[in-house]
Amino acid sequence: MQTVQRPPLPLRLLRVRPGGLVPIIALLAVLLILVAVRQPDFFAPPSLMSFLGRSAPIILLAAGQYFVIVSGEFDLSVGALVTAQVVVAARLIDSEPAHTWPVVLLLLGFGALVGLVNGLITTRLRVPSFITTLGMLLILLGAVYLWSDGAPKGGLSDEFRRFGRWAFEDVPVLGRVPYALIVLLAFAALAVLVARSDFGRTLIAVGDNPRTAELSGVRVWRHRTIAFVLSGVAAAVAAILIGGYSGVSFQAGAGLEFGAITAVVLGGVALGGGRGSVVGAMLGALSLELLFALMNFYGVSGALRSTVQGAIILLAVAVSAPRSSSR
Amino acid sequence: MRALAFRPTRWAVPGVFVALALTLAIGWLVVLIDGGQLFNQSTTVSLLHVAAGLGLVAVGQTLVILGGSLDLSVAYVVSLSTLVAAETMNGSDGALVPAIGLALTVSAAVGLFNGLLVTRLRINAFIATLGVGLLLKGYLDNGYDGPAGATSPALVQTLGYQRIGPVPLSFLLLVAVAGVVWLALARTRFGHHLVAVGGDPEVARLSGVRNDRVLVTAHVLCSLCAGLAGIYLASRLGSGAPRVGSEGLYDLESIAAVVIGGTALAGGRGGVLGTVGGVLLLASIDAIFNQLEVDAFFKQVIRGVVIIAAVAVYARRALRKGAV
């Protein structure tokens, strides 16, 4: 990889290259300007902090999805996994504070396990990940409905909900800092570290050309499986935040998989793998959330949201596509 | 070249039909032990009705997947088509032909748009058709709260409910459409070009195939099939239904049926006969579980397992053949 004489960071960011950060930063800037024009209050610390806290789950999911997509696969099961986790957490905690921490650990383990199964079926049984994770989506939703007889049971303890709801009060300058934001920053830092490690770089090589990677001694299946596990764990953390913020429902994770994939693609990561950065993926998720906030400010009716979302996605991808196809 | 390109089709088709026969045999036995009857008139009819709706969408989906593309917008095209048809008919038989024409035209236009996004703007098919799906979803959510329009009684009586013995007219429509598509794939230039483009776009281009044109045609045909499924559903429901497509999971289920039928998701390999087998397999599993009065959610779990297992079997077989 081009480690020799890299230009300093600001210059690197400016250079337009496939999978680079320029398009997503430009999109983010445009959205920020539009928000600033319409609703200057948005940038006051309290509302900004709560916006970032609310966006934490989808940003985490995008980071997890990044690892899977950059390695050349898909994970369609994350939305169903979030729903399953929230419902399972409510039933197991059953409003009992003492159950909180064991259940949190269990959820993380469950997320990792689902990722592991996705990864092993995809790599060892050679089922395309689109099908593996689609099957997993059906299995998870069916199983969780079956297990709870069609209506969520139990309840989340306040200790569990604080991750998604509570905040550090009276922080200087910022005011109120949601726990979710701290969780997000911690996991985002972790994601960047993983992406920049040997593992992260090898993963890009795997996505770019699995055959070449295999021939240079990389165990492709192991790397891809770990990517799925990362996505599963990210879904578990997102589920803990979503459960805390909005409570238990079968709709908790509905559509999140497509949201995360969209965010990753907006962030300049190529579907099919081999190109992109985790920072871009997370910024993509932030842009998507900002877009929703903007639609709120402009009073776009809830029903029309998906139309605007679809149009923005098509535009953003169309604008950056010619560059990426001519690599 | 041609024989080579089509050999996997001949290999893959029996697979899914063997699975179908086994499923039906085991299902018949289990239902019998349970004290029921799997092959009575009403279950057979409802099985074939389920197969007709999903089958029409899946046959179209086969075309785009063979070409190495994908269509995630079909579910919304189905809903849109039910509405266009039912609102134009507005309960009278007079507007039958124009309504069907309009519904198909609108569907074809969506397909054309999909195709142009994928070929001209070079947007990944997954994102392009997801985006178009969202555009349509917003339009439907914004404009409709519930059923709208009314299907012409003549259509309801024929396509919706008429049957010959246990075979509904709609299933015959599926058979006819699948037959035409099979002929197109096996005997026409378009069919051969499509498989070539799906197999290796670069090689196809260098051999003089106009990839873009072929793919756009496939997308238009796929949306037309979804539109036809919409007209069928409108005739079944008696009105336009804004959420029938997405609630029926027609997008993901049609892709699953295609893949269970032995068509490779990467394109270039497979065929429409397998898809019909895949649709029948999914519909049979549905019918068997309905007879056993198994929980609907358990059915979904089984569906997920079947989809993964079927594809794993194909992958294993492809691997073995590759090794020989």
TrEMBL record, chain A:
<keyword id="KW-0472">Membrane</keyword>
<feature type="transmembrane region" description="Helical">
    <location>
        <begin position="76"/>
        <end position="93"/>
    </location>
</feature>
<feature type="transmembrane region" description="Helical">
    <location>
        <begin position="51"/>
        <end position="69"/>
    </location>
</feature>
<dbReference type="Pfam" id="PF02653">
    <property type="entry name" value="BPD_transp_2"/>
</dbReference>
<feature type="transmembrane region" description="Helical">
    <location>
        <begin position="226"/>
        <end position="246"/>
    </location>
</feature>
<keyword id="KW-1133">Transmembrane helix</keyword>
<keyword id="KW-0812">Transmembrane</keyword>
<feature type="transmembrane region" description="Helical">
    <location>
        <begin position="99"/>
        <end position="120"/>
    </location>
</feature>
<dbReference type="InterPro" id="IPR001851">
    <property type="entry name" value="ABC_transp_permease"/>
</dbReference>
<dbReference type="GO" id="GO:0022857">
    <property type="term" value="F:transmembrane transporter activity"/>
</dbReference>
<protein>
    <submittedName>
        <fullName>Monosaccharide-transporting ATPase</fullName>
    </submittedName>
</protein>
<feature type="transmembrane region" description="Helical">
    <location>
        <begin position="278"/>
        <end position="297"/>
    </location>
</feature>
<keyword id="KW-1003">Cell membrane</keyword>
<feature type="transmembrane region" description="Helical">
    <location>
        <begin position="127"/>
        <end position="147"/>
    </location>
</feature>
<dbReference type="GO" id="GO:0005886">
    <property type="term" value="C:plasma membrane"/>
</dbReference>
<feature type="transmembrane region" description="Helical">
    <location>
        <begin position="21"/>
        <end position="39"/>
    </location>
</feature>
<feature type="transmembrane region" description="Helical">
    <location>
        <begin position="177"/>
        <end position="195"/>
    </location>
</feature>
From TrEMBL, chain B:
<feature type="transmembrane region" description="Helical">
    <location>
        <begin position="297"/>
        <end position="315"/>
    </location>
</feature>
<dbReference type="Pfam" id="PF02653">
    <property type="entry name" value="BPD_transp_2"/>
</dbReference>
<dbReference type="InterPro" id="IPR001851">
    <property type="entry name" value="ABC_transp_permease"/>
</dbReference>
<feature type="transmembrane region" description="Helical">
    <location>
        <begin position="12"/>
        <end position="33"/>
    </location>
</feature>
<protein>
    <recommendedName>
        <fullName>Autoinducer 2 import system permease protein LsrD</fullName>
    </recommendedName>
</protein>
<keyword id="KW-0997">Cell inner membrane</keyword>
<feature type="transmembrane region" description="Helical">
    <location>
        <begin position="255"/>
        <end position="285"/>
    </location>
</feature>
<keyword id="KW-1003">Cell membrane</keyword>
<feature type="transmembrane region" description="Helical">
    <location>
        <begin position="214"/>
        <end position="235"/>
    </location>
</feature>
<dbReference type="GO" id="GO:0022857">
    <property type="term" value="F:transmembrane transporter activity"/>
</dbReference>
<feature type="transmembrane region" description="Helical">
    <location>
        <begin position="95"/>
        <end position="116"/>
    </location>
</feature>
<keyword id="KW-1133">Transmembrane helix</keyword>
<dbReference type="GO" id="GO:0005886">
    <property type="term" value="C:plasma membrane"/>
</dbReference>
<feature type="transmembrane region" description="Helical">
    <location>
        <begin position="45"/>
        <end position="66"/>
    </location>
</feature>
<feature type="transmembrane region" description="Helical">
    <location>
        <begin position="123"/>
        <end position="140"/>
    </location>
</feature>
<keyword id="KW-0472">Membrane</keyword>
<feature type="transmembrane region" description="Helical">
    <location>
        <begin position="160"/>
        <end position="185"/>
    </location>
</feature>
<keyword id="KW-0813">Transport</keyword>
<keyword id="KW-0812">Transmembrane</keyword>
